[in-house]
Amino acid sequence: MINVGIAGIGFMGMIHYLAYQKLKGVKVAAICEQDRTRLNGDWRTIKGNFGPAGKKMDLAGVERHDQLDEMLANPKLDMIDICLPPAAHAKVAIAALKAGKHVFCEKPIALTPADAKLMVKTANRAGKQLMIGHVLPFFPEFAFAYEAVTSGKYGKLLGGHFKRIISDPQWLKDFYDPQKVGGPMLDLHVHDAHFIRLLCGMPQAVFSSGRMRGEVAEYFTSQFIFPDGRLVVSAVGGIIQQQGRGFCAGFEIHLERATLLYDFAVIDGKPEVNMPLTLLTADGKVVRPKMKSSDPVDSFANELTEAVSTVRSGKPSKLLDGELARDAEILCEKQTASIRTGRAVRV
Q1: CATH number of the domain at 2-135+301-320, out of 3.40.720.10, 3.30.160.40, 3.40.50.720, 3.40.1160.10?
Q2: Which of 1, 52, 284, 334 has its CA 20 to 30 A from that of 200?
């Protein structure tokens, strides 16, 4: 049995708690939260943009802490699941690793590449797994794309375009604070930066243009430049001021013998699949593969299954590895630098 302690019971902490209930051989043995109401199991104030609404939870058998040091000292715990605000990721992850715990931490890995590198270094020194919750590869459409690319079934990857745009999250007061959340680049686009790094490797340079809001990028397009000039990869991300489209994401991925298309949006509060996952094959066929589940919590359960398997095996995860997340952080920093300077920036 893998015993997990969750640090932070907000929306993502609740989603992780629910996802763990779907897993075998793992138990949420402890939680840490300073809000006494939530610590006592009343989660009705928790709200998010997917999944179930918060409710009163039966936390019988779950140890409850209001101080992190107390939970980290708990000898029963094998892994700490960090669902705290991004500004706390590095400090808490490093403390947990030094306490001899494996760490699963929500994205982004940290707010600066320097902190991300220190987290990876600490994990290596401690001999513990550092896993970062980039959940995108566990959503059915992205999982299909990952398999299509890495299997070589449709030939070599030629490139692709990725998008991830939201309406202005006016309810998040610290969203544009580089010291607390990091804005759209680190809260939103980092998903696609990670997926691009996963599929294509690390580019040698990036060129981005866009608008800044204070110190963070607000809306931007990026070209990722690779040694093989035939690998053409781009992305668009950021926020728009109109609230009618709350979210949109998708991709067009080019392979030698196939093209993958996907486009999803939330319009007027309702999900719309503008283009279900579609496979265009070299022989002219149009195929729409059947996806397994539309419940986002299932994708998080798959992600956490990978995390638990990584702890059991002691081998880094190809999808959750801290070094991949560190590289995504570096890409985001370089893209912001390119916007500021108006020039391509070496990675």
Answers
A1: 3.40.50.720
A2: 284
Predicted local distance difference test score (pLDDT) of residue 296: 83
Question: For residue 233, what pLDDT is reported?
Answer: 98
pLDDT score recorded for residue 49: 67
pLDDT for the residue 54: 85
State which fold the 136-293+328-346 domain adopts.
Dihydrodipicolinate Reductase; domain 2 (3.30.360)
Is the pTM higher than 0.70? The answer reads yes
Q: Where are the domains of the chain?
A: 2-135+301-320, 136-293+328-346
Beta bridge partner(s), residue 252: 161, 261
Beta-strand ranges (E) seen in the chain are 2-7, 26-32, 63-65, 79-82, 102-106, 130-133, 157-167, 205-213, 216-225, 232-240, 245-255, 258-267, 270-281, 286-287, 345-346
